[in-house]
Design a protein that fits this description.
It is a single chain. This protein is mainly alpha-helical. The chain folds into two domains: 99 residues; 138 residues, no CATH class. The protein has ten helices and two strands; from the N terminus they run H-H-H-H-H-E-H-H-E-H-H-H. It starts with a helix and ends with a helix.
């Protein structure tokens, strides 16, 4: 391979690592948006949405630009996991405390959520080679988003959080977008879901709760598909 071409491929591969690391900066901006004199939950969720966009696209770039060959000195998967833990778990849980999604005695559930979540990220089977997550994949940004919108009692919120935290330990397999079966229909459905969430976030001060409720169809189908695959594999009825 000509030397100039290899240099170009190397620079391009390292750019992917840099692109992934931008998620950490976006996470910091999310924290700043709710810790100033005028906390802005709309801006907070907008930054988390940007973090999701980065996370959803960096893997495709990494595979297309052969990062493991041309920038192998840095472990891209570890970088991705650290960034994801901050943006999908730690920062949303901080938001839950800041905006009193749980408060008083119910605040104690945040401790097992964080501990079980970091255990989930550190499992050897957290991401399988065939494109699945094992156990609830720490989508606390989505959980907190809906709890913030629905304004349920603190005790109900605490119960929801602890149930999903326990779900991290349950060996149900959930799709991720590197899965070869996540085809065009799934991508289209995900795109529509994203547009709905963008609209809800724009109108966060006075959201259409009917639309919010309807938007739950996608996460319910996502979680349901994991349970279906589990029972189909084990032969339970």
């Amino acid at each position: 391979m000509p030397q100039l071409k290899r240099v170009f491929y190397t620079i391009r591969a390292w750019f992917v690592h840099f692109y992934t690391s931008l998620g950490i900066i976006v996470g910091l901006l999310a924290i700043i948006s709710i810790t100033g004199q005028t906390p802005d939950p709309k801006l907070f969720f907008a930054f988390l949405g940007l973090a999701i966009l980065i996370d959803a696209t960096d893997g495709t770039m990494a595979r297309a630009w052969n990062v493991t060959t041309y920038a192998s000195q840095l472990d891209g998967r570890k970088l991705d996991d650290i960034t994801d833990f901050l943006n999908y778990t730690f920062i949303p849980i901080f938001f839950a405390y800041k905006f009193e999604i749980v408060s008083g005695w119910s605040t104690i559930v945040l401790a097992p959520v964080l501990i079980l979540s970091v255990y989930g990220f550190c499992q050897n089977i957290a991401k399988t080679s065939d494109g699945f997550f094992t156990g609830f994949p720490n989508y606390w940004n989505y959980i907190i988003y809906y709890l913030f919108l629905f304004h349920w009692p603190k005790e109900i919120n605490a119960l929801v959080l602890i149930l999903f935290a326990v779900g991290i330990l349950v060996p149900v397999k959930y799709y991720n977008y590197s899965n070869r079966f996540a085809g065009t229909i799934v991508l289209i459905f995900s795109f529509v879901y994203t547009l709905v969430l963008v609209f809800i976030t724009i109108t966060l001060e006075q959201p259409d709760m009917t639309l919010v409720s309807l938007s739950l169809i996608f996460p319910v189908l996502y979680l349901g598909s994991g349970v279906f695959l589990y029972f189909r594999k084990t032969g339970h009825k």
